[in-house]
Amino acid sequence: MYFFYNLILVIISPIFYLLCILHPKLKQLRLKRKQSLSNLLNLNFIKSNQFVIWFHSASVGELDQSRAVARTIKNYSKRAYIIQSVYSNSVTEKQMNDPCFDATFILPFDFAFAYEPIFKKFKPDCLMIFAWDTWPNLIRSAKNSGAKTYLACASLSKTSGRTKGIAKLLTKKVFSYLDGIFLSHTIFESVIRPLVSKSTVMEVLGDTRYDAVLQRIETGLPGSRFQTFIAKYEDQISNHKPVLLGSTYPICETYLLHFLEKYNSDPLYRKEPIWIFPHKWEVDRMLVFRNQLQSFGSTALFSELVDSEKKEKTSLPKFILFDELGILAFAYKYAQFAYIGGALHHRIHNTIEPAAFGLALITGPKITSAPEAIVMRSMGSLQVCETPDEFSEVFSFMLKDKDNTRSLGEKNRNFVLENRGASERIYHRVFSRDLS
């Protein structure tokens, strides 16, 4: 299978490089990846008695998983040297910056000999991949170099293409190079078990994102502007909790408008406050959306409310559009329930954060990339809506039956707390003997 995989890469690589010449953005992405690797290889590094660990994460969500394990390792031992790679070019330097990572870079494309310079320079003792980003040549190169190889917080949906046809054969071959697979939840055992050889250890150790999220919300503080906002309107917010829509895309906003058109005339819903956090603040789009919302009630931007020089106490508007970053994770604390965006558009955004605050959740159907969302759906505390009418019905039900909504939210919070501790379990299962 590896022969055919690499043969395909050899065939398509000239096409890819030609596209890089023709498309400046694609060229820029390739050069960014190349420069990132060059920066890594230029580091002044001597292994000496250090235990080198290579963590790999696909994107920001998986980066949270590795960050939690890295923090645990560093708490136990200063002898660990941790290299962190990501695959997505969209991950920023700020997101990768963490004192627990000794080096960070963007993963090269998965050609047969792409990783040899890294293994030659750093001689990793262990490669641990988080969640699902199991590049075939990366894992085989690690195994051939003598490194222990693991897939942690593992998840794979029944609908994944890697469980079907030729891709299934390649997945089984790749998994055969792993020394251990640590599942994020028992629900994935039936999917992954048929892909794993008898020589590969498979255990359920949990998902370290729960540790990362809980640590962030328990020790972190929102920005001063959000603290000012809460202090100014605390009485109103606590007396009439808002519904929160997080990481919204245009399609999410059309679903909300559909609900408002259908139910806003009902006195039961007319005064319900709604806070909206767009995934990306686009001025023109938000201007149109704001005008649409104003026909259903008073509307303001977060920045306008904070920057207002009025000293007298004013009433909060029905709709608040949050036009500043770094607030969403802390705003869940004040909500009665939440809609989580992405699952109508591409894939669902973070559901652990709102669940940790005890919120019942609504989202779209694209949740297969998020094991925690799959579990919460099976518990009934996350509702999946595929159409505007379904969204409106669930939204109105949660507003009407507040006791049931609180009960579902509490179920989510208990679920998050019960899953705490995966970082410690992974540390003691994999690293404690070598780092003690």
Chain-wise SSE layout:
Elements: H1 2-22, H2 24-41, E1 51-57, H3 60-76, E2 80-86, H4 93-96, E3 103-106, H5 116-122, E4 126-130, H6 136-145, E5 148-154, H7 165-175, E6 180-183, H8 189-192, E7 201-204, H9 209-219, H10 224-239, E8 243-248, H11 250-263, H12 267-270, E9 274-278, H13 283-294, E10 299-301, H14 302-307, E11 319-321, H15 328-331, E12 337-340, H16 352-356, E13 361-363, H17 371-379, E14 382-384, H18 388-400, H19 402-418, H20 422-435
Parallel strand pairs: 1-2, 1-4, 2-3, 4-5, 5-6, 6-7, 8-9, 8-12, 9-11, 10-11, 12-13, 13-14
Helix pairs in contact: 1-2, 3-9, 3-20, 11-18
Any overview of this molecule?
There is one protein chain. The chain is α/β, with parallel strands linked by helices and 436 residues long. Helix content is 50%, strand content 15%. It has helices at residues 2-22, 24-41, 60-76, 93-96, 116-122, 136-145, 165-175, 189-192, 209-219, 224-239, 250-263, 267-270, 283-294, 302-307, 328-331, 352-356, 371-379, 388-400, 402-418, 422-435, and strands spanning 51-57, 80-86, 103-106, 126-130, 148-154, 180-183, 201-204, 243-248, 274-278, 299-301, 319-321, 337-340, 361-363, 382-384. A seven-stranded parallel sheet has the order 3-2-1-4-5-6-7. Strand 12 (337-340), helix 16 (352-356) and strand 13 form a beta-alpha-beta unit.
